[in-house]
Amino acid sequence: MPEVERPAEAPAEPAPPPAEPEPEAPPPPPVAQDIPAPPVYSDEGESYASPSSFDYEPPFRPRRNPAKLWMAVAITFAVIALGSIGAVAWYGLPDWLPFARTTFAEAQPDLVLDFPPNRKDRRTLPNGVEFFGASGTVTNVGKQARSVPPILIVLRDARNRVVYSWEVMPSKRVLAPGESVTINEAVTDVPRSAKFAEVGWKPG
Predict the structure, then answer these.
(1) Which of 40, 79, 95, 161 is an S-S bond match for 49, by CB 3.0 to 4.6 Å?
(2) pLDDT (average), residues 182-201
């Protein structure tokens, strides 16, 4: 039996070359992050020098207002000043102030005090008691009747300090024009430091 010729096989196409792998995309650059600084230890070794998140903090911090502060100071000063003025007007100046109160009142209209130095007696009695006596007159030199206010006798020491004083009420409280009243006063147990006397009208 005759052999049947087989058609010649077409040569096989060459296989395509393997595809080259695509280059991988470079990784994204790292994002910069703040790295917390390490805690700083104090010399004691246990406490942190930086504040802790667990430390106590006040709920709020008051804000100072200079205008309100000065206003409060001004109000306080005004209250003290007004209180002082009211106290002086009601009670007068304290006695320890050198200008607080004069020793004698002003001269009375038409009334003349006359206590001559030779009628002031300052001595020590035989029994050791200190004695002072004074005599004088009050005369109305005006043309109208005048009321006679109380008289003040003051004893001073060598440094001009008041060491003793007392009030004298005239025996006649109203003097007619040209009329006079005589005053005789004596006291004992006065301070030994008393050196001289002054006579004047008692301050009101």
Answers:
(1) 40
(2) 89
